[in-house]
Structure prediction request, 423 residues.
Amino acid sequence: MHHVVIVGGGFAGLNGAKLLGKSKSVAVTLIDRENYHLFQPLLYQVAMAALSPADIASPIRSILSEYHNVKVLLGEVVGVDPRRNRLFADIGEYNYDYLILACGVRHSYFGRENWEKWAPGLKTIEQALEIRRRVLTAFERAERDMAANQAGERLTFIIVGGGPTGVELAGAIGEMCRFTLARDFRRIDPISTRIILLEAGERILPSFSVKLAGRAARDLVNLGVEVKTSSKVTDINAEGVAIGTEKIRADTVLWAAGIRAPALARKLGGELDAQGRIIVEPDLSLHYYPNIFVAGDLAHFAHQTGEPLPGLAPVALQQGRSIAKNIMRELADQPRRNFIYRDKGQVATIGRGRAVVDIGKMKFGGFFAWLVWLIVHIYYLTGFKNRLSVTLNWGWSFLTFRRGARLIVSKEWRFYHRSGENG
Ligand SMILES: Cc1cc2nc3c(=O)[nH]c(=O)nc-3n(C[C@H](O)[C@H](O)[C@H](O)COP(=O)(O)OP(=O)(O)OC[C@H]3O[C@@H](n4cnc5c(N)ncnc54)[C@H](O)[C@@H]3O)c2cc1C
Prediction:
C-alpha cells in the first residue's frame, strides 16, 4: 500500500483526497491546521454579517468519512525533507510515497506587514469575524460620538484592492448602509457613510473584460462607493491611509490586495515565483522530486497560456483531481498526463441584484448575472446543509433587506479578565 500525504483540505486537497479515497492501492493522510474546509468565495458574506461561519465551512473529517482509506489529522505542517520523503508537523513526523502540497496562500502587504494591524485582510474565518466586528463597531461608535462630530472618519471605510474581493466588500458595505442599517440608527445617517475603494492599477477587476469592469465600477458608484484607480497606498496607520501626499482619514481600513505563499514553499528548495509560489512541471510535480505535487493557489502553473493560472477555486479543484488521477495511473503502470485547465470563467457580485459574469464569450452584467452568481456559489458550496442554510438566508435577506449575523463578538471569553469593575 502506498502512502499519500496531502497538506491542506481546501479545494485542491479535498478533491484530491476524494478521488484517492476510491483507490484500493493507496492509504491517504490529509493534514490541515483547521478541522474544517472553508468556502472562501463566500467569506466576505461572513465579514459583512450576511452569513455565519458555519454556513460556509464543513468539518473535513465528516466530508471524508465515507472514504475508509483516508485518515484526517488536525495539525500544522512546518517542514519537508524531500530527499528522505519525510514531512514534519507540530503533531509528529510522517513518511510519504507521494506528497501533495495544497496549503494555499495568504495575503501580502508588500513588505509592510505592520499595516496588518490597521487593515485586516480576508482569508480566514477569524479575519472575517474581525472585519465584521470593526465594521459594525464603527457604526455603533459613530452613533455614540455624533455630538463630538466625529462621524466623518468614524464612518469612512477604505478598501484597498480592486480585485473581486475588494469589489465585493465595497459593494456589500454600500448595500448594508443603504438598505440594512438605514432604519436602525437615530443620530447618524448610515447612507452618508463614505466608502472608498482604492486600486493601484488603472482599473478595477483587471481579470475581467474592460467593459464588465466599467459596469462594475458604475454599479459601485450607484451604491455610494468612491472608486479611485491609479491610487497606490503608501502608508496605513491609526489615522487612515496615505496615497503619496494625499491623506484620507478613516477608522476602518480593509485589505484586499496581493498574495504571498507560506514559508513552507521555500523549504523544498525548488524554483519560486515573485509571490513565493512553487513553479511546477506540466503534471504539477516538482522537477527534482517527481513524487511531490503542488496544487491550487500555491502552484505556479504557466504551461497552458504562458501566464500563471489565476488563484481560483475551479483551478485548485481540477488540479487536486488531476494529481490524484496521475498517482493512480502511475500505480497502475500507466504514464502520467499533463494538467489542462478547463476554464470555468469568473463571476463577481457588486451587491443585491448586481453582478458581472465573464465566461468565455459570454460577458454580461446585471440581475441575470447576479442569478448566475447565486446558482454557481450554491452549486459549489460543500454539503447539503450549507447549501440549504445559505439559500434560506439569502432568500430571507432578499425579502427583508436584513442581515442575519449582525453580532459584534469580542475575542475575550473570560469573565474575570475583562477590564473595569463590571467586567
Ligand atoms: C475572500 C476570497 C474570495 C474568493 N472568491 C473567489 C471566487 O469568487 N471564485 C473563485 O473561484 N475563487 C475565489 N477565491 C479563491 C479561492 O478561494 C482559492 O483559489 C482556493 O481556495 C484555493 O484552494 P487551495 O486548495 O489551493 O487553498 P485553500 O482553499 O486556501 O486551502 C488551503 C488549506 O490548507 C490549510 N493549510 C495551510 N497551511 C497549512 C499548514 N502549514 N499545515 C496544515 N494545513 C495548512 C488551510 O487551513 C486550508 O484549509 C477567493 C478567495 C478569497 C480569500
About this structure: The two ends are 57 Å apart (CA to CA). The chain has two domains: 2-33+75-105+261-331, 113-258+346-400.
